[in-house]
Amino acid sequence: MKYQPEITGETKRIKHPWRLLASFCLMGIVSFYGILPVMRALIIARPQHTALIGTPGDVGLPYEAVAFTTNTGAQLRGWHIASQNGATILIVHTYKSNRSHFVEQAAFLAEHGYGVLLFDLIGHGESEGRQLVLDGTDVLAAVAYLQSQPDTKNDKIGAWGFSLGGMVSLQAAAQSDDISAIVADGPFPIVVAEDMPAPVTLEDWFWLPFEVVQRRALQMLCIPPAHGTSQAFSHIAPRPVLLISGIQNSGERRVMRHYDSVAGEHVTLWEVAEAGHVKSWYIARDAYEENLLRLFDKALLDYP
Question: Is the peptide bond before 224 cis (omega within 30 degrees of 0)?
Answer without folding.
Answer: no
